[in-house]
Amino acid sequence: TTPGTGKHITILHTNDTHARAVESSPAMGFAKVAGIADKYRSENPNTLLLDAGDAVHGTTFATLVNGESIVKVMNEMGYQAIVPGNHEFNYGSERLVELADMMNFPMLSANVKKKDGTRLFEPYLIQEVDGVKIGIIALTTPETMYKTNPKNVEGLDITDPTAEAKVLVNEIRSKVDVVIVLGHLGQDASSTDTSFKVVKEVPGIDVFIDGHSHTVLQDGLVSDHGTLIASAGEYTNYVGVIDLWVDAGKVTKKQAALIDEAAAKDIKPNEKVATLVNSIQKEQEPILKEEVANTAVLLDGKREQVRAGETNLGDLLADAIRDVSGADIALTNGGGIRASIEAGVVTKGDVITVLPFGNQVVTIDVKGSDVVAALENGVGSYPEPSGGFPQVSGITFSIDPSQDKGSRVHSVMVGDQALDPEATYTLATNDFTAVGGDEYTMFTKYPTTGMYGALDEALIEYMQQLGAVDIKTDGRIKEAALP
Ligand code: ATP
Ligand code: ZN
């Protein structure tokens, strides 16, 4: 392509890497991403590397050390800035601030606020590159407020990103040559605060680097106001490359592209990053490899299955939660089950991969009518998958999807008795749903009556009790027309 006039700036970007540290096709892994960055930096010293969020959580590589491994690797890779995505909050906001402090580059977000209205992080960064002033404004998805454990965002507010962008673009536009928004907003129609909304309502943004919807934008998109929107998929499958030319305080040309593993096949991985990733993996290996149980069958935790119906892993986990707590019934959100387990030896690593959130088992004493309300909430979008789909134990019920949301659950039995809406049941669940995660808001009025340790430990203990796990779904959740 023909260059524009003026200074050439290259901006490399990643998003939704979700701790895919190691190469696993089509994921390139961090060493390769760093190698790509090295190559661009050697060709153009005016190169920045930015991350649009969801970096510090997603595999055992990260979760075993509450995100610290990712920070170490990103420091070595030489990032200039990151915006926290919803998953950055998975270890709690205090831990997020600790991680941000460990980073030798800034974590930025204009719309993550404390209750007193002050910001948790700096809203933007102005970086001068070869005499060109680049303003980088960061925005986090307000969906974080209900997509992570509510306790992880306690005392925080995530305000309207469009309103923040309006104010800040206005504030810095005249002070900089280039305005970049680094956003974890995404482009899904299901979200109200998308990057599309921001670029439509806020003129004066040269480039919007997006994450959250895991969108692959091969050459970017250009909005009505001329903003170039870029997004690099997920899992280190791509590195985004934006070329900008800036002359006399104006962007004269801009373009976006993505590098994937085929395009990067001749690029050498960065050796220091490869060594670091390896050494972290080696350290973690003994814990992850620990054999904790055996299963005769595949335990199904596939996203589309476990968020849309009963699976044997859903049953097993709900049984484990009920068993460890001695509760009458158990309910756990399908979206909290993040992977399947193959038949054979089960390792600690397998279990943490299924349950990476560090959740606790808790009990609450719930009125029967609220148990039904909870089931209704969980199956509201059935047969469409949704994170809140209830995996249950000690209770059986049927769903009639032809009925409206809120009145499609029927034939609810607790043990061998019909559920009594007026009775009180001890319900075991995880601490995410207990505090209203996945819109289980009917639970929030009940005080916790017991805590029974970590969800992953409960699953391991229960599998050990069973000996060889050989569990099939037993039809505790059925689809059936209302009688
Ligand atoms: P993205 O990677 O695009 O940000 P996402 O995580 O926002 O994806 P999903 O993969 O659908 O979107 O995950 C959200 C679901 O994960 C929630 O609906 C919920 O079911 C589950 N979830 C999130 N945090 C927790 C938690 N702490 N405990 C249990 N389940 C959780
Ligand atoms: Zn993500």
In CATH terms, the superfamily of the largest domain is Metallo-dependent phosphatases
**Euclidean distance between termini CA atoms:** 67 Å
- The best one-word shape is globular
Q: Please give the CATH class of the largest domain.
A: Alpha Beta
Hey, roughly how much beta strand do the residues contain? 25-35%
What is bound: which ligands? adenosine-5'-triphosphate, zinc ion
Give the low-pLDDT segments: none
Question: The CATH topology of the largest domain, please?
Answer: Purple Acid Phosphatase, chain A, domain 2
Instruction: Calculate the mean pLDDT score and round it.
Output: 96
CA radius of gyration = 24 Å
Alpha-beta classification: alpha/beta
Measured as a percent range, the helix fraction is 25-40%
How many helices? 14
How many distinct folded domains?
2
**Beta strand count:** 25
Strand order of the largest sheet: 5-6-8-9-11-10
GO molecular function: hydrolase activity; nucleotide binding
Protein name: 2',3'-cyclic-nucleotide 2'-phosphodiesterase (5'-nucleotidase family)
GO biological process, one term: nucleotide catabolic process
Family: Belongs to the 5'-nucleotidase family.
Model description:
The chain has 14 helices and 25 strands. By secondary structure, the protein is α/β, with parallel strands linked by helices. It has two domains: 7-284, 4-Layer Sandwich (Purple Acid Phosphatase, chain A, domain 2), CATH 3.60.21; 290-479, 5'-Nucleotidase, C-terminal domain (5'-nucleotidase,  domain 2). The chain has a six-stranded mixed beta sheet, covered by helices on one side. Strands 3-2-1-12-13 form a five-stranded mixed beta sheet, covered by helices on one side. It starts with 6 loop residues before the first strand and ends with a strand. The relative contact order is 0.12. The structure holds adenosine-5'-triphosphate (ATP) and zinc ion. Zinc ion binds at residues 16, 18, 54, 85, 87, 212, 214. This is 2',3'-cyclic-nucleotide 2'-phosphodiesterase (5'-nucleotidase family). Keywords: Hydrolase, Nucleotide-binding, Signal. GO terms for molecular function: hydrolase activity; nucleotide binding.
